[in-house]
Amino acid sequence: MPRLDSKTVRIMRKIHRWGGLLLAAFIIFYCITGILLNHRKYFGYFISRAKTVYEVPVSDIRMMTSFIDYYKKQIGRADDPTVIRIRDGRTVEFLYGSHGRTTYVIHPREGVMEKIEKSPRQPLYLLNNLHKAFQTGDSWVILTDTVSLLIIIATVTGLIILRYSMFDYIMVFGGVLIFLTGAFLWQ
To answer: Which residues pair with 114 in a beta bridge?
Structure first.
């Protein structure tokens, strides 16, 4: 392997240093959120639920089951859907499976029914599942958590032990500003 001259090495070190300083906030944030996403089930999926119970008049559910059974016969399925949606008071959607893998959209006024079947696009679907700890093995979660912790440690220790010039501090400050701007705009 050919050896690089010292000027090229110095330029590459500066690019690596300044780029690392600029990206330090993003790297730490990305690793921490990755660990949290790996264990989102333990955090209640980051959702607070407040349950309020009201009394309503007791009603006969035969009308509701009649409505559902009517459309299930049109669809040709005996099993109950995961979700039933009524959109704009004009269409009825019956969703079956996880995230509506099979969806029937019924337009009663037009006499039309659409069947939409979702299938995963590979390899992107498989790669996306790597970020869903409940769909991957424990060994993958342990590996990604460990790598994330090592990246956090390397980034923080690099920020602590290196000597910085004023330009380096400006780069870190600029990186944090870019990160905060992105976080603010994302909301």
So the answer is: 105
Q: Is residue 127 situated within a structural domain?
A: no
What count of residues does the chain have? 187
Task: Summarize pLDDT for 132-168 with one digit per residue, the tens.
Answer: 656 667 787 788 888 888 888 888 887 777 777 888 8
CB neighbour list of residue 80: distance below 8 Å, 6 or more residues apart: 68, 72
In a domain, 53, yes or no: no
pTM, two decimals, is 0.52
Dihedral, CA atoms, 117, 119, 121, 126, nearest 10 degrees? 150
Q: Looking at the domain assignment, is residue 52 inside a domain?
A: no
The SS3 call for residue 129 is helix
Count structural domains, the chain: 2
Per residue, what are the HEC states of 102-159? EEEEEECCCCEEEEEECCCCCCHHHHHHCCCHHHCCHHHHHHHHHHHHHHHHHHHHHH
CA nearest to 22, candidates 155, 152, 153, 144: 155
Cα(187)–Cα(184) distance, integer angstroms: 6
